[in-house]
Amino acid sequence: MEIKTNSKFLPGLVWKDNSGEPIQAHGGGILFHDGMYYWYGENKAVETTATPAVRKNGERFIRYQTELAGISCYSSRDLLHWTNEGLALPAVADDPDHDLHTSKVLERPKVVYHDATRKFVMWMHAETRDYQYARAGVAVSDSPSGPFEYLGSCRPNDAMSRDMTLFKDDDGKAYLLFSSENNSTLHVCLLSDDYLRPTAIYTRNFVNQYREAPAMFKHESKYYLITSGCTGWDPNQAQYAVAASPLGPWETAGNPCSGENAELTFNSQSTHVLRLEGREHAFIFLADRWKKDDLGDSRYVWLPLHMEDGKPVIQWLEEWDLNWFSGGDSA
Q1: What structural domains and CATH numbers belong to the chain?
Q2: 37 phi/psi in degrees, rounded to 5
């Protein structure tokens, strides 16, 4: 029996699916296909462990992690009510060397559709628990809800690949964006025509600025990129940049957030910017409010993003609905 109680977006509160269970789609992204939205993200509905660790510089810290469960998929027609489609990419239990083994890490899955091959292509950050693997993994499916077939991982152009996102442009070209060089620099890499491999065409951006959690979108003829600083699970100030091409050069332009806690991105971290289908100037900023000691209880912060004189603006709202974009009353 379906439970449909969501009538508004409530940033930071528990968000349940149509069966009444908390949604498990952390660090995720959304694909629109044939009238349906598909939300992919990390399933962290397992115990969080706290393990002492030491960085290369000798600094001691606590690493909060969960066993790998897999990548979830949810479907919705209205972005409020979500049906759990199960694990689009489940973990592998019997092969410790596999990228999808329960002892490994998968983060920030994003999916795009290839119009010619009719394949759904998922890229993700594939990692070991000590974060030294730093690779980009890829999987494909004939269906948006999976199951996806994992094809393997690589270091694009021999570069480390951690926090990442995907961007498909209007001309059909797709780009992989990822934190590289020990997170100090963000790479933007053009993918092959079938979206399954990185090409040798890439750029290095925000050199020595330590940006992660990239979320890219296009408005009119310009490209916008929202990123986070590198502070682990703790929030920091978002930054946006503008370019005339996905490959850059990118011009940093400030904090897109405004209002209380804007300097901490409303206590969250960017993961995706969704353009509403059929609404040219309507975007939703998707972020995660991480709960590091119980990652499965991390919350989602979705807020409307609008453009003011070429600048993306994100304001905090306790609650809202899609009428906000039409100037209606969303309270």
Answers
A1: 26-326 (2.115.10.20)
A2: -95, 135
